[in-house]
Design goal:
Strand content: 5-15%
Distance between the termini: 84 Å
Order of helices and strands: HHHHHHEEEEHEHEHEEHH
Structural class: alpha/beta
Number of domains: 2
Strand order of the largest sheet: 1-6-5-4-7-8
Number of helices: 11
Radius of gyration: 32 Å
Largest sheet: 6 strands, mixed
Amino acid sequence: MSKETIVISKRKNQIHWGIRILLSFLFLISAVAKLYPSPYFALTTFEIKQLLPMGFSEVSAAYFSRTLIGCEFALGFALLQPHFLKRLVIPVSFLMLLIFVVELTYEIINSGNSGNCGCFGTLIPMTPLEAIIKNIVAMGLLGYLYKAIPHNPLKKNILVLVGITVVSIASVFILGSKGSGKTKGKAAKIIEVVEEPVVMNTDTSSKTGVTVDAKTATTDPTKLVNGKDPKATTIEPIVEKVDEPAQKKSGYKSLYPDIDKGKKILCFFAPGCEHCKETAKALTEMRSQVANFPEIRIAFMDEEAELIPAFFEFAGAKYTHSILDIATFWKTVGNRDTPGVFYIWNGNIVKVYDGIDANAFKAKEFKALVQKPWSEVK
């Protein structure tokens, strides 16, 4: 073998290893990202928001999510070892990416190319189309590897692959079983906070049923007829029509029994979410500027619940709140994201803001909305 042939072979081997390391990193970072910022939070969020809408039950979603992430870890490590690399590891990696592409294509057809596909969890938000492009590129690299690397008949110890797979999946199951939520499996506890009244400059003049001439504010008792001034004009009290919506059920009475009485603002926040903190601060400022501002109720996610005191300190006020375990929180919020702000009037859900994208909370718009009578709102 000539020196030139050896150099070319060495370069090809370096390229092959570079591709293997890149693909391994892709699978490993995908698995790690699905466990960010904490395994229980990330897994529960992935199951509620991604798997349950696809038809999984809660039990099957829990098993599937942990097995899937475990397999991603296993493939990431398996790409760096030689046993059954061409016969098994590369084809299985290609097949997994192909399944992801088909699922993401179906998601785009049904829901459009919006939101985070969840491929890299919340660590690296990615639209379904971006994820498809990423997967197709990775599939192309796997196809090149399959053709380029030679089959090694000496490297076929299946126990190596079985060991990697079992350890990877078992590790994810162990990590996912350690739920950090203190309220896991328990009913949410409502923490009542008496909000300080906000003093507004309002007109406190009252209406009367009798009009009195200002020039004769004091009537001569000798001119009274049967104890009444015959010159005084008696009018009937004015009964104003109440401009508010008919009573309905919002569906959130299980959170707060009084949520459907009058005007309420129901917020869904995560204690460590910066956008949630900013939204709460904006509501506090608004509350000091608007007369008869709706009462605020908050449902916190039980992730970093120890940050709730700091949350209220940043917001500038304390509000009545409850703490929901992560699964219950996402089920209650539904197909929405945090921060969530629901404007509820007599049980009627007037306006909903959620997330940080197109439907994000708009303070100026909301301030104008809460001051409108029902006839203008509807």
